[in-house]
Amino acid sequence: MKMSSRIQNITAGGSDGWAVYYRARAMKAAGQPVIQLTMGEHDIGTDRAILDAMHRSATGGNTGYALVVGNDDLRAAVAERIESRTGVPTGPENIVILPGGQAGLFAAHHAACDPGDTALFIDPYYATYPGTIRAVGAVPRAIKVSADNGFQPQRRDLEEAAEGASSLLINSPNNPTGAVYDADTMDGISAVCQHHDLWLISDEVYDTQVWEGTHISPRALPGMAKRTLIVNSLSKSHAMTGSRIGWICGPADVVHAIHNLATHNTYGVAGFVQDAAVFALSQGTAAEEAVAAPFRRRRQIVLDALAGQNAVRAAPISGAMYAMLDIRATGMDGESFANALLDAELIGVMPGESFGQGGAGHIRVAMTVDDDRLADAVRRIAAFAATRVG
């Protein structure tokens, strides 16, 4: 029997960019002391108080079907969080709860694109972006940004790509580059979206991890609330990656349509997980800052470990839990470097090319191991690179 072309072509018949990760994981499972700097997974677990809230809810009987659109108290809590951060009036009618940010990206593109429509995204990009676009039947079109511009999208490049497109996907703070889009960049994005009548899908899962600059949500920009779909979750802000709890914020009619999609797809999120999410959000910004603190500290650890050498340069680490390292001085591409590093030093990193051609000649380091191991690993990466220079 023949499978659909849509499901067979999600990755366009190629790799999803995670081969080095899987090899490093297999080596570690075989007993080798691999330092995994590949995955954006916190090295702390979900806070025990959040797990206790989840446990109380589950053992209290909240294990049946939940409201598909999301429970009222969680939608209200998310709306309050967004309104307090953007200044834009936001109510529960603007929120649909979904099983994680990835489900949000999928649903947002379903809402914004018809089959065959062109959907724009920024390159470098999180590995699932083009596949998500293909999965809804749209055609992905990458807009390459440059390390020379701090990985900030340039308006002229956006304008050139936008003709005939239906949507633009952005991610600030950015995975993999660590870029935080500044006011000029966001104004350019806003202008292009309004001029070309694009939906803007804003992936804001790292909005609590800003080390330099300010996170700007496009929902807060003039004329943008009606055409912006915010995708977010508690995965990064509250170390709840496995709980699969996220949302879309957008116009009420779009939320209603995505509710209908969820009815035919995920059929909601477990009620006890939603109760834990309400509890997590009730802890306020102090809880978010506690989860973010190790990465703020480790950003400086990476910079200190790279000081005094020229083989490896860090792109500005303005946000998120990653460092994008430029290894072009070695003459190697990111994939070759990552594989050689894994073999020689037992350190797993992601090739920049896994995230698109904008990441060529770079590697992404996830700052997700303890401070001492991270410092040691980065120094060893730099020393390894130095042996390949010249």
From TrEMBL:
Keyword tags: Aminotransferase, Pyridoxal phosphate, Pyruvate, Transferase
Domain Aminotransferase class I/classII large: 33-381
Entries under CDD domains matching the protein: AAT_like
GO molecular function: L-aspartate:2-oxoglutarate aminotransferase activity; pyridoxal phosphate binding
PROSITE patterns recorded: AA_TRANSFER_CLASS_1
EC number(s) from the headed UniProt entry: 2.6.1.-
A Pfam family assignment: Aminotran_1_2
GO biological process: amino acid metabolic process
Top EC class of this enzyme: transferase
Similarity comment: family membership: Belongs to the class-I pyridoxal-phosphate-dependent aminotransferase family.
Protein name: Aminotransferase
